[in-house]
Amino acid sequence: MPDVALGWSNRLKVARGGQGVVAHAGVVLPRLLADRVGLTAGLRAVVARQGFTPRRDRGRLLTDAVAALAAGASCLLDVEALTRQEALFGPGGAASDTTVLRALDELADRIGDDGLPERRYARMLAGVRATAWAAIVAGNQGLLPAVQVARRPLARSGTGEPVTVIRVDATIIEAATCKEPSVTGHYKHGIGWHPLTAWCSNTDDHLAVMQRPGNAGSFTASDHVLVLDAALEQVPAPHRRDVLVTIDGAGASHDVIDHLTGLNTFKEHGRRGRRVEYTIGWPVDARTRTSIEEVPEQAWTARIDPNGDVAPDGGEVAEVTGLLRGSAGGDRLDGWPADMRVIVSRTPRPIGEQAKLGEDAQWRYSAFATNTGEGQLQWLDARHRTQAHVEDKVKELKAMGAAKLPTADKDRNAAWLQLAALAVTLTAWLRHLALDGELALAEPKTLRFRLFAVPARIARHARYQILKLPDDWAWADDLVNAWTRIWSLQPG
Fold this sequence. Notes:
Blueprint: E1 21-22, H1 28-36, H2 39-47, H3 58-70, H4 76-83, H5 86-89, H6 97-108, H7 119-138, E2 148-149, E3 152-153, E4 164-170, E5 173-174, E6 184-185, E7 191-193, E8 196-200, E9 206-210, H8 221-234, E10 242-247, H9 254-263, H10 266-269, E11 275-282, H11 286-293, E12 301-302, E13 316-319, H12 321-325, E14 341-348, E15 363-370, H13 377-386, H14 390-402, H15 410-434, H16 444-452, E16 456-461, E17 464-468, H17 476-487
Helix pairs in contact: 1-3, 1-15, 1-17, 2-3, 2-7, 3-4, 3-15, 6-15, 8-9, 14-15
C-alpha cells in the first residue's frame, strides 16, 4: 500500500513563470507607514544635492531598503531581490546593489564624524517621530503608552502623565574581516564594532545609535553624553518634561550623572522646568561593600518581581546612601550630586556556587544609583530591573540588518546601521498603530512569518491594483485591517 501521507508531491511540479504573483506581499505595511509618517519624503530631502536629480528617487529607495530589512533582508542582494518585484514596487523595481551603495554614501554624508546624524538629518527624524507619536497618543486615549513596573504604569503621581523612559545600552557587532580601519578587537575577544544605542521603552522605537570601533570603551562618558543628548532631541517636546534615563553599570561615571543632574531643572523651575531622573547601575566596590556590611539585618526587605509579588529567589533590597555619606571614614560619596541615592540588592547564591575572592559566600550583590526621592525601595529596585528588556530591542536591531554590516567602508556601515535602526522603529510604530492582540506584541520573526512573508496575487479592477491574499491564511484579516488603519493616517 502506498503511503498516503507521502503522496502530496506525486503530481506536484515546481517551475518559474507565475504571473501576477508576488512574494513577501506584507512588506507593503512598513512601506506605506514610512510614506504616511513622512519618512520617505524626509529622507529624500535630507540626501538631496543641488543640481543632481537621481534616476531612482532616494527617499523611495532608502525607505524600501528599510522595509526590506524589517521583512528579513540581511544584505544588499536581499534588498535588491525583494524590491525588484515590479508588480509590488512599481516599474523598474528598486535599484541594483551598486545603486543602494551610492544611496548609502549619500546618507553617510549626513552622518557626523561621531557616528550620529547631523543636525538636518536629526531634525527630520524628530519631525517624523513627532508625527508617529501623535498618532500613537491619539489611539491611546490621549496618552503616551506607559511603561509597566510591577503591574503599575510608570506615571507621575498627581497628573497621571506617563514618564518617558530612555534606555542607553551598548552592543557588539561581529566582523568577518579586519580590512576596515574601524574594525578592531573588542572586550569579547573578537573583532568588530561597539555601537552605543538609545531606546524609548514607552514606544519601543530606536532614538539614537552611535557607530563606534570595536575597542571603544564601555565606560566612555563622553559617548554616553552625546547619545543621551541625541536621544532627548528625538523625543517630541510634549514628552520631554518628565524623563527617566536608565543605564547599566557603564553609566556610573561623574560626567554622565552630573550631566543628567544638570538637565534636571524641576527643583529650580517647578512645572516650567524638566524633570530628569535616572536609575544607573552602581559598582559594588570596596566602599559599597563596606557600607553593605554595616546594614542591619532588619533593614533588608524582600524584593518584588515584575508582577509585584515577593520575588521567589529570596532576594532582598536596602538603601546604603546614609551609610556612604556618614561613614566613620568620612563622606564616601563626596563630589557626587547631593540628591543621589545608592540602593543595593542581594540574592542567595545557588547551592554549590563558589564565590570569587573577596565576594560574600552567601549572597550575590548588585547596586544602582538614582535621584528619585520618593517611592518604596522594592518598587525602585523593580523599576531598575524592568528596563533590562532593552536587550530584546538590541536583538531586534541585529535581526533587522545590524547583525552583519555589509561593507568594508566605515561610512557606508554607519548609514546601514541607521537604516537598521529605522527598520526597528517602523516595526514598533506598526505594532502600536495597526496591530492588535498577539501581533501587537510579536517579535520580528513572528511578524515576518504571519504578515510580511505572505504571498499574494495581483488583481486589477476599476483602476485599482488589489493584493489578493490567500483565503486560508490565518492572519489574512490582520494584514487587511493593518493596511486599512495605516491608509487612514493623515499623511505626514
